[in-house]
Amino acid sequence: MKIDTLCLAQRQTAEEYLQHAYEIPEEVPFLPMPDEAFVSKWQEAAGRTVLDFLIDGLSLPAFAFSWEDEEGLGISFAQTLGGRLPVISTSSHEDFRAMDALMSGREEKRELPLTVNAFTIEAKAENIFHHRLLLLNCAPYSNITATRLGLGAGDWQERSYRLRRAYECAHYETLRLLGGMKNHALDEILADSFGQLAAFGDFSADRQRLFFGLTKGETCCTGRLSFYTQKVAMEERDKVYAVVDKVLDMMEAEIKALLSRKAKKVEILAELAGRSIADRLAQGFPGK
How is the chain split into domains, by residue range? Predict the structure, then answer.
């Protein structure tokens, strides 16, 4: 009972949740930033199978996971504003869950919704503690079918990978440039913005509602956004969904204006991260 009471006491109100924003530094470091030191170790993966490199090369424990598609595992590198990051890709959700466990030093896979197919991981497994990497599963983004976007299956699969990769890179960039990253609606909109730009060339509020599981004008959520509001009191979550729904149209206009004046990526990052969802709702879009 004490644990339940403590958990309830720690739940945020919608107002508290929607106040989150990042403090933008006055001076931007030279970009891209240098790679973190651990990245050089991952370059040894070249020419090796993924599991051979992870288990023999990095000395990770060989947990008894049953891999659905070992040939679908891959390692590459992503260039971000914060330096390069290793990228591990999988081709099935079960292998994604297994790789998440392996990187975290867990012998058991955790439950993850089918809509979650990407992580920026700070590894906790022995021998790679504090290594950061992107873990991406090749699947339709947010578990949205190609037909709902009016695309062919192959086209949507390829766009999903680009979207997911850019999305995770954006999370890492907020971490290195702004000092943090969160499972929060603001961070998710920011990351999805760069993902949409990579996959579609623009940002669509309606497309984002689809990814989040929102319906315009309604206060319920049937998808991913519910995963990022778990720290909000249950009775307050509908308020969050309603505000996010309203703010998405403002952010579409905001991003369109930034693109029209050819803003650099770091400028877009700062603009999106530096103003909370609550402030956007209160002040509206300034139209600059």
Answer: 9-283
